[in-house]
Structure formats: structure tokens, C-alpha cells
Write a structure and sequence with these properties.
This protein is of the alpha+beta class. It has 11 helices and 10 strands. It has a 6-stranded mixed β-barrel. Strand 2 and strand 3 form a beta hairpin. Helix 7 runs parallel beside helix 10. The longest helix is centred in the N-terminal third of the chain and has 37 residues. It is elongated and about 95 Å long. The protein starts with a helix and ends in a 17-residue tail after the last helix. The relative contact order is 0.18. The C terminus is likely disordered.
Length: 373
């Protein structure tokens, strides 16, 4: 540590600029990752954070809750499949609602009270248990406890009795209501509708039955449906895979840039001080000592860069106006940090190799370090 810290103290500007540059690149990685996870959560948070562990759509819907319609007869067939524990109807529609005198496009999700499909991230208030009650997603900040909303066409009001987190759908404010309330809202928005069918059914398997196994059994038993475990329903929702792929490319490029910048800087530094390293080897310094000093320098620079990146990330998520509710995912942040630091350490492998190849006898032929011409 003495060799590493002494050199950093002698050239603080050089190492400080490097730590700042790497910190900015790390911040780019972390912010892009946060933006990606927040965007995906705004697409499918309502599916991820509801109590049903299996979702059953009509096969024509192509894994889209909004495009799916299930008849009561098909729902009854799903309920009869062995392994189905609890089952509840799930409806979804985008409606224009009046809240605080303003019109807002809202994703309205109806689920039967006390059955699968209820939101699971309640942060204040309570769940909707009676007609005329609703639970709103808190991210969009369009609703508050006690607010009353109606459809633009009128109809019975819905009172907000709870707020739930990480539960948006299709990047819209989302309102969870009982299925009876959902039916009333649909009919108020479309008075000609005589029947409101569920979009899907949410299922909780019986004890000892896994969600994926039950989904496979439903697909094999009931025609014209697509049953997916909750995780598969989220992963296969329209737009999710393409969004993940686009962000993955950007993140991979940014991580590679961090590793290359770190690797090239320390390679150049190693080349510049080859004469001094050769002299140290000639006076008895083991190669492992020099390599340890190099690795310690890398770790110190990356540590400072990480502090810079996390500080910028916290500030950016607090003040950025992206139109999305940004939230730092600690688990994803740790994984990104491990990947970035690991590849950066791998990037200095060439520098380590050059240090290990230094021949102490070369000092004899280097007049600049006291050798013989």
C-alpha cells in the first residue's frame, strides 16, 4: 500500500482526473440501468406486484392484458384444472377519468375483492373492498387519499382509499378497483355495452403446486388460452424484450468503455515508469510487491470513482425530470458495480503482465537508472 499511496500523493491531479472520468462513466452505467428498470417497472409493475402467481390470457392476445378477453365459460374451465387454488377475474382498460377537475388517461384494473389480482405493494390506506373504492399508483402523483374520480362521461364516483407503489401499467397512472366498480366504469364510458368480460384470470396454485407447473397444466387442458407464471407474464409483455435489448446494448458499451479507459491509463502509466520499476526489481523488490502496488492503485481509483458515481446517481434521481418515477434498485446497483469493477480489474491485466515481464538485469544496460552503457 505504501508504494501505491505514495505515487498517488505525488500525482494527485493525474489520479484525481482519472477517478473523476471513471466516476462519470460509472454514473452513466448506473443511471442507464436505473432508467431501464424504472421504465420496465412502469410498463409491467401492475403485473409484477399483484397477488396472482399465474395469469391466464386468451391465446389471441399475444400475452397482452389489454388485448385479452375471456368468456365466463373459459374461466370456468380454468377453475376446474387440478392444482388451481384460488382464481379471480381481472379486467383492464384505459379510460379518461376526471380527477381534481382535470382529465387524466388512466389504466384501470379491476379485480375481485379478496381474490387473486389485488395489488401487493400497498404503502398507505387500504385495499378496495367495496364498490366505489379504488387504490391508485403513487408514482404518477395524480391521486391522493380521499380524492374522488369519475369517468369523463359521468357515472358513479370512485373514492381513493389506498396508494400502492411500483404498480403502474403501460407507463400510465393506474387505478385498482373491485371488478364490480370496473364494470360500472366501463359501462359509464360506453353506455351501449351490455356485458363487461374479464381480460384475464389471476390464479394462485394449490399448496405444493408451482406456478410454472400449473401454467403448463392449464395450457395443456384448456384450449384458446395462454397461461403464464407471473414472472413469465412480465418478461413476455409487449415491448419488454425490445426495451431490455436496447438498454442492454447501451449498458454493455458503457461498461466496456470503463474497462478500456482504466486499462489504457494504467498501461500507459506502467510503460512510463518502466525504468523505475526495473530499478526496484534490481534492488530486490519482488514482482509480486510491484503487482500488489498496481492493483492497490486500481482499487483506490475505482473506489473514489464509485463514490462519485453513486453521489451523482442519487442527485440525478432526485432532480431529473424524465417523466418516469425513477427509483434506484439496490440489487441491480450492486450487480452493476461488481461487473464494472470486475471488468476494470481485468482491463489492467496487460499492465500486470508487463510488470511481471520486467527483467532486473535490464538495469545494467539502462544508463538512465544507473546502468552501464
Amino acid at each position: 500500500m505504501f508504494l501505491a499511496s505514495r505515487e498517488i500523493r505525488r500525482a494527485p491531479v493525474r489520479f484525481g482526473l482519472l477517478a473523476g472520468a471513471i466516476g462519470l462513466l460509472m454514473f452513466l452505467v448506473f443511471f442507464q440501468q436505473t432508467l431501464a428498470s424504472s421504465l420496465l417497472n412502469s410498463f409491467t409493475g401492475a403485473l409484477q406486484n399483484q397477488s396472482g402467481t399465474v395469469l391466464v390470457y386468451s391465446s389471441e392476445a399475444r400475452n397482452s392484458l389489454e388485448a385479452s378477453v375471456l368468456s365466463p365459460e373459459i374461466a370456468a374451465k380454468v377453475a376446474a384444472v387440478p392444482g388451481v387454488g384460488q382464481l379471480g377475474s381481472l379486467g383492464e382498460a384505459t379510460m379518461t377519468l376526471l380527477a381534481k377537475g382535470q382529465q387524466i388517461d388512466v389504466a384501470v384494473i379491476g379485480a375481485e375483492a379478496g381474490k387473486p389480482g389485488q395489488p401487493t405493494k400497498l404503502i398507505s390506506g387500504r385495499l378496495a373492498t367495496a364498490p366505489g373504492e379504488g387504490v391508485a399508483s403513487s408514482e404518477a402523483r395524480s391521486f391522493a387519499l380521499g380524492d374522488t374520480v369519475t369517468t369523463a362521461a359521468g357515472g358513479s364516483p370512485v373514492t381513493i382509499v389506498g396508494l400502492t407503489g411500483q404498480s403502474q401499467f403501460n407507463v400510465q397512472p393506474t387505478l385498482f378497483v373491485t371488478f364490480d366498480t370496473f364494470t360500472a366504469l366501463r359501462k359509464a364510458a360506453n353506455p351501449d355495452a351490455t356485458m363487461v368480460l374479464p381480460s384475464a384470470v389471476a390464479v394462485i396454485p394449490s399448496s405444493g403446486v408451482g406456478p410454472k407447473a400449473l401454467a403448463a397444466a392449464i395450457n395443456a387442458t384448456v384450449p384458446q388460452v395462454t397461461a403464464l407464471s407471473r414472472s413469465d407474464a412480465v418478461a413476455n409483455a409487449p415491448g419488454v424484450s425490445s426495451t431490455q435489448g436496447s438498454f442492454a446494448i447501451v449498458l454493455a458499451l458503457a461498461v466496456v468503455v470503463v474497462a478500456l479507459v482504466t486499462g489504457f491509463f494504467f498501461l500507459i502509466l506502467t510503460v512510463q515508469k518502466t525504468a523505475a520499476l526495473t530499478l526496484l526489481r534490481a534492488v530486490g523488490a519482488p514482482a509480486s510487491y510491484l503487482v500488489r502496488g498496481l492493483i492497490q492503485q486500481v482499487v483506490l481509483v475505482l473506489g473514489v470513482a464509485l463514490l462519485v458515481a453513486v453521489g451523482l446517481l442519487v442527485t440525478a434521481t432526485a432532480v431529473a425530470n424524465t417523466g418516469l418515477p425513477l427509483a434506484i434498485d439496490p440489487r441491480a446497483l450492486v450487480i452493476s458495480t461488481v461487473v464494472v469493477v470486475g471488468l476494470s480489474l481485468l482491463g489492467v491485466a496487460v499492465s500486470v503482465w508487463r510488470v511481471l515481464r520486467i527483467d532486473p538485469f535490464q538495469a545494467v544496460g539502462r544508463p538512465g537508472v544507473g546502468g552501464i552503457e
